[in-house]
Amino acid sequence: SYIRCYYWAVKTLITIGGLPDPKMLFEIVFQLLNYFTGVFAFSVMIGQMRDVVGAATAGQTYYQSCMDSTIKYMNFYKIPKTVQNRVKTWYEYTWHSQGMLDESELLVQLPDKMRLDIAIDVNYNIVSKVALFQGCDRQMIFDMLKRPRSVVYLPKDYVCKKGEIGREMYIIQAGQVQVLGGPDGKTVLVTLKPGSVFGEISLLAAGGGNRRTANVVAHGFANLFILDKKDLNEILVHYLESQKLLRKKAKKMLKNNNKPKDEKGPPGDPLIIPPKADTPKLFQAALAATGRLGGKGPLAQLRWRLKELKAMQA
């Protein structure tokens, strides 16, 4: 009996099924109230279900929206399919590996203290081992930990190229990168693994940064932290002692890296301007004697001409 009563009540609220037609005015008003109550309850229930499903898939919806907008943009400008496929691969890998497209969007909502705590757990063990930062103020390193940004590189992507002006330092969080060199620029010199750091000298190099000396390519998918030179300069304004120490270290490291291996050059190389031959000693003695005697002959004129030539060369 109770189940039957509950069934009739639910059927009445959601206005489903053949209900008895009202006869009297009271029955009509009562049935209208039941209809309105059922519609309201049904709309509230459907709205809550929509909110739950929408919240559960909000990230996926944002990711799909970004990818669709990017694809539409590339199709509009007729970007080659090879480039479009790499862009799609980057979106898919970044989303599946991190669960987000940009970590800074998540951390920017947190207070500075919480962001610092997260950055210390993630980056401190790596940054503190960088030779360039050894001996610097500990608080300066803490301030610097909040600045790096995370970037994902696809296989065979160039992280930096030879001859470029270096303005960033790279910290490998995951994956591997290869340093290429040799005559063709494709010989693998070394493979850097997670925890390795490269490009740190570029942060403090004067004159806009030193040029890269080799190509660095991602070996597979690689996730790198990048620290910009501008961010470091904003931090060093408040730490003068650390700034002096870093400048001194950077000059020393640049001097060691830029020191020429052979200043004299190979022995077989021809000289563009050959050195001037020395004057024979006997001829010099004759000129000196002519000068002491005050002669006006050919030797004296030649000696005077030789002085003019030396003055012009000087």
TrEMBL record:
The main location is membrane
The protein's location, in the record's own words, is: Membrane
Membrane-crossing residues?
28-46
Tell me a GO biological process for this protein.
retina homeostasis
SUPFAM superfamilies on file? cAMP-binding domain-like
Q: Which SMART domains match?
A: cNMP (SM00100)
One of the entry's Gene Ontology molecular-function terms is: cGMP binding
Q: What kind of membrane protein is this, topologically? A: Multi-pass membrane protein
Protein's UniProt keywords contain Ubl conjugation: no
Region Disordered, as annotated, extends over 255-275
What name does UniProt use for this protein?
Answer: CNGB1 protein
What is the source species? Heliornis fulica (sungrebe)
